UniProtKB/TrEMBL annotation:
It comes from Brevibacillus aydinogluensis. InterPro entries: BofC_C (IPR015050), BofC_C_sf (IPR038117), BOFC_N_sf (IPR038118). It holds the Pfam family BofC_C. It comes from the Bacteria. Residues 107-183 form the Bypass of forespore C C-terminal domain. This is BofC protein. The gene is bofC.
Amino acid sequence: MRRHWLFFMSWTAVFAVGLAGGIAAGELIRDQNGSGLSWLAVETGGSQETVNKSYQLVLARTYLCGVKDEEIKQVPHEQLAQALVAYSGWEIIASDPAKLILYKRENDLAPSCKANGYFGLSPDGVLTLFNGLPAEQQVVQTFYRIDTAKMETKLTKDKLESLKRGIRVRDLAEYNSVLSTYSEFQTDEEES
């Protein structure tokens, strides 16, 4: 894993430095209309019009609670190298002359899960993370089927009712605590 990370960081640095150097050189070498960036359009397969516009930087994230989101930023071509340095922990998953897609797996809950996440049981007995109370049935993530008979013999009535109503999670510690507490009631049988 560390070797993969070092490889990725080295290539990201080479790409950023090369792009920054190329842009700086392009500024020095002016073409006939004075833009100085026509070399970039030719090298990346884009047009002069594409080079003069901003570059679309797409930041895609996946959170532990299963939520995926994207943020789109417009970055002037001459500031792309600086932007890549700011997102050095992100993986480049796609690029073209006008767009670069970066990906990061967040080791945290999504802001929406922190704001309105509840653990509960689905109607078929699966431990589930909901957006809102379980009664609203807005499923975010499912985990495993619960042996409710076993759970009823080992847990207090308050804990059972709490799970049925919904257990609020506001951070990663609470999320992991609920998963840990109810994992002992996970059924071994697979649905066919």
